[in-house]
Design brief:
Keywords: Membrane, Transmembrane, Transmembrane helix. The protein is α+β, with helices and mostly antiparallel strands. The chain contains 4 helices and 10 strands; from the N terminus they run E-H-H-E-E-E-E-H-E-E-E-E-H-E.
Amino acid sequence: MNVFLEKQFIKRWWLFMLILAIIVIGVGTAYYATVNSEENIALVVSVISLAITIPIVIALLSLRLETRIDEKGIFTYFHPLGFTKKFYSWSEIKDIYVRTYDPLSEYGGWGIRGLGRDKRAYIIEGNTGIQIITKDDKKFLVGTLKGEEAKNVIRQYHTSVTNEV
């Protein structure tokens, strides 16, 4: 039994610039408040700004999309966001295939897309994804950088796999 495992990390230059800006603003605010004030409020502002900055930076740096395909089904998760855990058993999948897509025109960009709708997606980068259509006609796409490998593992577990890529 083969298992497909993939972890995708966000490698966008603008995200690293955002993280750098958050760090500079947080540290700068703490420094300015401490240096330019003799009151205890400066220390409080410093601690609050760092208490906000550090978790945001850690969360942004730890974002990753994990996908696992095995004999039970497909599990995907936008780590560390617990509410993004999705599992589709083979018995609830009507159709599944690897396809190319346009993140901007089809889903409006990258990340967690389509919350609250029947057409959802988790996308980090690229234009290849695993399209899942459930028996109640809900659509979910998970981006992958390993389309051929995913297709080969899916073929072992699902009989109606189509070849769209």
